[in-house]
Amino acid sequence: MTLQERLNNDDRFAKNIGAQLVEVSDGYACAELTVAERHLNGAGVCQGGVIYTLADLAFAAVANCHGILSLGISNTITFIKSAQLGEIIKAECIEQVNHHKLPYCDIKVSNEQGEILAIMTGLAYRMKKDFEFDSLM
């Protein structure tokens, strides 16, 4: 099983909201989601937790791409623009620091027009446990 398949299948919360990893490479991942009615908040725009979960899925792929179980310990997200019903939004995560204990990533969430919706930083903690997969994709 690939890392992409493992996270798309085993991250049940992300799967439940329709978030899917579409690309995973060494130090990079991209996840996508189409904003549906169920994702809208009381203001009629995509709920921030949906955007956070999409970004967190991409972060999980990058943090774990080296085969060591890594769990997020600190994330900061800034919402810049709302996502609208029907938009395909994507989260792109880039590993900035591949530290043996505390990997650090930057995540950008954008819409189909390339407009930035949110920016997130992620810090993970690498456990003393393998995270097994056959390949990244």
Write the layout of secondary structure elements.
Blueprint: H1 3-10, H2 12-17, E1 20-25, E2 28-34, H3 48-64, E3 68-79, E4 88-97, E5 104-110, E6 116-130
Antiparallel strand pairs: 1-2, 2-4, 3-6, 4-5, 5-6
Q: What this model shows, in words?
A:
The protein starts with a helix and ends in a 7-residue tail after the last strand. By secondary structure, it is α+β, with helices and mostly antiparallel strands. β5 (104-110) and β6 (116-130) form a beta hairpin. The chain contains 3 helices and 6 strands; from the N terminus they run ααββαββββ. It has helices at residues 3-10, 12-17, 48-64, and strands at residues 20-25, 28-34, 68-79, 88-97, 104-110, 116-130. The chain has a 6-stranded antiparallel β-sheet.
Structure keywords:
137 residues, alpha+beta, 23% helix
Q: Categorize the overall geometry.
A: globular
Low-confidence stretches: none
Q: Find the structural class using helix and strand composition.
A: alpha+beta
- Give the strand line-up of the largest sheet: 1-2-4-5-6-3
- Beta-strand share of residues: 35-45%
Q: What is the overall number of helices?
A: 3
Overall pLDDT = 98
Largest sheet: 6 strands, antiparallel
Order of helices and strands: HHEEHEEEE
Helix content: 10-25%
Rg on CA atoms, Å: 14 Å
What's the N-to-C terminus distance? 9 Å
**What's the number of extended β-strand segments?**
6
